[in-house]
Queue: 4 jobs
Job 1
Amino acid sequence: AGAAGASGEAIDPNFGLDCSTNDDCQARTNYCVPASPFDTAYCSVQDCDQDPSLCPATWTCTDLSRFVAGLPWACTRPTN
């Protein structure tokens, strides 16, 4: 907590929290990235392709439709 993203704003503490639906995400986070075989569903921000500064500094703006048709661009967690 307290880290700054690309935009210099404080990181929303809701980034990366587990979720089941978009309604579980609050504040800046507005999208529940669907679960994958490698990760649980988590809160993020969609449409980062229009404003990459929405993503925290270590996160990546990813076109999720590459994996499932119809999904938006969203900030995805750093890979370990």
Job 2
Amino acid sequence: MNPSSAQRGVFLTATDTGVGKTFVGTRLVQALSRQGRRVAVRKPAESGCEMQDGELQPADALALQAAAGTREALQVICPYRFRHALSPPRAASLAGARLPLADLRSAALGGLDGSDWLHVEGAGGICSPIAEDGLNADLAAALGLPLVLVVPDRLGGINQALMGLAAAKRHGLHVAALVLNRVTAETDPDMDNAAELAAHSDCPVFCLAHGATDGLDALAALLAGSDE
């Protein structure tokens, strides 16, 4: 756990969009719950929401809510929702709204009574804008949370992972773990991104086969044990 953080938890982000953040996040939340953590989930801003029954429905936030088995209102989990499938600040601008970083920080930290673990999911990659005045990395820093960085386990994944680690370092962030997520079933059997990453970083690496969750219980134990 980042020693500067007063709140136990993680900020889950990725090296790109569409690489399985919510898939990994929901299973990690379930694993933490199985290990006795009372998890509060937050997706402070979500874009690309579809309108249903007169209200924008945030699919990722709904998945996190279900994974946590929480009774927290969806408005608490995800207060900032936008229709356009763009970065949250751009989508907010198109909707005639403001989205300052301070508001996202307040939303992520609000209403945590009864929880002992905070799981915050960003939007897009680590260096994607999430607020009009900040990136995902800036929000993680404002929250004082360590990162779990999801990386697609494919050709080019090593470069993306190392660039993500470098970005985290520039922002003074601790990366608790990398999760190599195999986003497609087909892959080069000779590829071994985990081994190559081990030669270039000292960050723990967890590997997920396509659609599998093996390894997330071990990640949950690592995360939960790091603050004790």
Job 3
Amino acid sequence: MNEFEGKVAVVTGAGRGIGAATARKLAGMGAAVAVVDLAGSAVAEDISRNGGKATFVACDVTDPSAVESMVETVVGELGSVDILVNNAGIIRDDLLFKMSVNDWDAVMNTHLRGNFLCSKAVQSHMVERKWGRIINLSSTSAKGSRGQANYAAAKAGIQGFTRTLAIELGRYGITANAVAPGFIETEMTRSVAERTGVDFDDMKAAAEKEIAVRRVGRPEDIANVVAFLAGDDASYVTGQVIYVSGSPD
């Protein structure tokens, strides 16, 4: 299946988890993929070994000059940017009265500033080609999540940012949508369990009881939805937030 043959995708935070699954999915559908992260060369190498086309570009998405350089590198090596998946993210959980300003800023910068900088850097290439797809990763936490004031605010902000991109860029053949995952089994969710002293299997079991389909999500569940939004079948879908949580959120 080569739906994205001739297309170039940039996936941030692609060194592991949802980002890595998304990079592999798009590459498997024919896209040339820029695996963008602070560390993630193994993902690009794995894609190449399996017959896909990928390049790793190290980038701090909170740094404007680094983002501009990353996009220049991608265009120079792969030819364009047609699809942007803003997935890079971190967590610095704590209750509000204990949350530091540094932890607030770190989360807001990585998620919101990172989305802004990457979207701004690629939009001119998409406008020139009169075609583009921007998919931003939000979260069910955008509805509010105890101990995640910073993360919830950032993920809610991404939803407003996405809708605004859709309004501004739609006339140029560019769509912008957000995917909001629920509980997805990744290194990040495992780290939450470790930090809070909860057995990860127990955490998953508790979550599954509250999920309609009675299982936690896999990175591939998110990658599949991202791939749909990146394709021509979703050309009339823009400014939407798709909750992918195994429940009717």
Job 4
Amino acid sequence: MRKLHFTAAALVVLAGTLPALAQTGTTTGCTTAPTSITALNLERTLAFPNGFFSSNVPSLPPAVVVAVASGALEVRDQLTYNPSTKILTVQGFTAQPASPKPTPPNSIGNSSILTLYRVQVENVAFSCQPVASVLMTGRIIDNFPLTPYGDLIGAPIAIGFGYTTSQANSAPQVNNLTILVPGVAGLFSGSASGTLTFPALPVNPPGTTGTTPTIVFSPGATQETAQRQLYLDASKSTDPNGLQLTYQWRQVNSNISAGLSNGSTATPLVTLNGGKGDYIFEVTVTNSKGVSATAQTTIRYYGQ
């Protein structure tokens, strides 16, 4: 296998621009950083060879190098995070330049996969200063096929990106996504597409006082299923003063289709129409005095 040698004067540092998710109105700045990630499924195109920063020698199939250089293919990677297990999966592959992004998981053929590795995330940091950004750090726990830089099991790794959104209900736009394996390589792209959500901050209507309801999802905030239909369940939510609760559900991500029935009940029925992937739903729970809390749940569908 022929090897290519790329060099750069310095590694790209983690960066981002503009505000974090606001709870109401148009964002003008990140004032409250999130504390966790509800769902992350991102895909980006790596500029070749300018997106690869290393004095080491990466190995790529010669046919891929030729196809990318001619514009017939592009190199992408897809990042998927499971908040329950704290596992981040990174899959590198080739794709047609005009193909959709993110690429549906079942559309990535084995022959196009360049590498697949998993990261045990040990820490996630969030910041509003100087920009809205996320930094995930951990260790690579497996890699097959091997990365272009060889076997990296046990290596520390950092994944960082900035994000921005212009309206309260719009999805964050990810920018300046960097993967850094110290002493080995850095991979940089200016943007990425896909899903990034955080737990919503509870918002009290003006003039209301008291404590917000506590939202509880059953069986949990993230669940996996092979069933196309299932019930969401927030019926175990409570109000600290024992007030009556009402519910209003909606689907958050628009890149994958789902049907929602009885969305004003604690247990609506959803139909997963868009195939495999993450379906993200949000519920707003309001007590009889008009005080509300909002939270999101993710359904990971792996059926047909």
